[in-house]
Amino acid sequence: MNEELIEKIGENNVKVEVEDEKRMTTWLVFAISGKKYAVRSADVLEIIRDVSVYRLPFMPPYIEGVLNRRGDPFTVVNPLALIGVENTTPPSEPLFLILKRVDDQLSLHISDILFFTEVEDSDLNLIPGGGEDGFFLGTFGYGGEEIPALNPNSFENLIRKDLGSS
Length: 166
Fold this sequence. Notes:
The chain is of the alpha+beta class. Helix content is 22%, strand content 42%. It contains three helices and twelve strands, in the order H-E-E-E-E-E-E-H-E-E-E-E-E-E-H. A six-stranded mixed beta sheet has the order 3-7-8-6-5-4, covered by helices on one side. A three-stranded antiparallel beta sheet has the order 2-1-9, with no helix packed on it. A three-stranded antiparallel beta sheet has the order 10-11-12, with no helix packed on it. Strand 11 and strand 12 form a beta hairpin. The protein is globular and about 75 Å long. 20% of the residues are buried. The model has no long low-confidence stretch (mean pLDDT 83).
């Protein structure tokens, strides 16, 4: 009888542990032209500043050029040019998020790093039908405001489409 009770207690504890486990994702919140945006911290390889951007001719307006990161060229994307927001506050110094990509070298030109935060996955308000091509995954609430979460895959997909690579 004691063994039965111990077994039931063990089963109940396992169920409680599974219910208490919440899936959390860490997000990097940053600013571009005074507006807050976020990207999964797992999608960020590095944050660098004070590097030159070398302009390239005949590129779409959202591609500012390339930067040199330890001898490797990274495409610099201006997210505001894609999402239709006017850049009213130019950054005081160049600041870039180097994105962690499998086969591409991509960076986002931003204004400022604000903070890291953990958000429960169920608290991310997904955009219906956003898919891989949508620039936003969704939003999450922080400090009484909704922060848009960017989709790094959409930038890569758009560059591939616009420049004709696969």
